[in-house]
Design brief:
The chain is of the alpha/beta class and 308 residues long. The protein has one domain (60-298): 3-Layer(aba) Sandwich (Rossmann fold). The chain is 36% helix and 13% strand. The protein has an 8-stranded mixed sheet, sandwiched between helices.
Length: 308
């Protein structure tokens, strides 16, 4: 028998003997309420899992740049290639033209070329078809499975690229050069051609040609060559014999394609223009607007020619 049971029995005996034993006051003690354990939920950061695949993870360039729509039907009518067009002699010409340029840009040539992905399209004089050539070359490269292309309007004194592509004026190259707060991706235009982006010439500036030959431009080009090392960058530049700035720009390029208008550009102008390109490692010539007789005389079936 426990002590508690013995005490209870003794009290009962005293009561039976007539001893007044006061009832002990029992104070109700409430049982402690078990505290619910606190569940600390860690904040879940969004990650690219199966549950949120609908959210597109954008690169810094995509999040800053603006998307525009090219009217491919209108461009095709103007003689500019479109990615979904059937095979044609015009498309085949640019396939052959672009191949050595891509190889040089991607380091697949026999000799490594510094800034090989920077390709300048120029001419001796205005009106020889350099902008038309730059647009077609960029479109042709955009059809490649393994390459992307940026098309730059660097003819800042007489910008014509956006007009040829049917686009309104927009901020671009000049704005980046004069305003340190503007980064390059902010003025790039993404297009409905998946692998093609456009850099407009930008806001007109009274010293645009001087800016093209400035240290700021040289720094920007070096940054572009490194930042977009996997991308081919096509520059529609000023004619070589019109401004000296075009010659400075050419010295910063890895490759230069000089467009020559068949039966229009004189031999003297071609020779003089080529003499200004001595510092560029790769110089190619492209014959534009050639007649059938001119094509045959150059020995090519498509109306273009390469020269060193």
């Amino acid at each position: 028998m426990s002590l508690i049971e013995q005490a209870a029995q003794r009290l009962e005996q005293l009561r039976q003997a007539g001893v007044d034993v006061p009832q002990p006051s029992v104070e109700k003690v409430s049982e402690p309420i078990a505290e619910k354990p606190q569940v600390h939920q860690a904040r879940q950061e969004k990650t690219p899992t199966d549950s949120n695949r609908g959210e597109v993870l954008q690169s810094p360039e995509m999040s800053l740049s603006r998307r525009i729509e090219l009217d491919l039907q209108v461009l095709s009518a103007a003689g500019i290639l479109r990615p979904d067009a059937p095979r044609s002699a015009h498309a085949d010409e640019y396939r052959v033209i672009k191949r050595p340029l891509i190889d040089n840009a991607m380091g697949r040539s026999a000799t490594p070329i510094s800034n090989g992905n920077l390709i300048m399209i120029t001419s001796a004089l205005p009106g020889e078809g350099k902008t038309f050539t730059a647009a077609n070359l960029a479109m042709s490269i955009a059809m490649e499975l393994d390459n992307t292309v940026m098309l730059v309007d660097a003819d800042v004194a007489r910008p014509n690229l956006l007009k040829v592509l049917g686009l309104p004026p927009a901020r671009g190259l000049m704005d980046v050069l004069v305003d340190d707060s503007i980064d390059l991706p902010q003025v790039l235009l993404r297009t409905n051609v998946e692998k093609l982006t456009i850099l407009p010439s930008g806001t007109p500036h009274p010293r645009a040609t001087e800016l093209l030959a400035s240290d700021a431009m040289a720094t920007l080009l070096e940054d572009m060559a490194n930042r977009y090392s996997d991308r081919i960058i096509i520059f529609d530049s000023p004619p070589l014999l019109v401004t000296t700035e075009a010659r400075t720009l050419a010295s910063l390029m890895g490759q230069v394609v000089m467009v020559v208008k068949a039966e229009g550009t004189t031999y003297a102008d071609v020779k003089h223009a080529l003499a200004t390109l001595e510092s560029c490692p790769v110089k190619l010539m492209l014959l534009n607007q050639a007649t059938a007789s001119a094509k045959d005389s150059y020995g090519y079936g498509y109306g273009y020619g390469y020269g060193n």
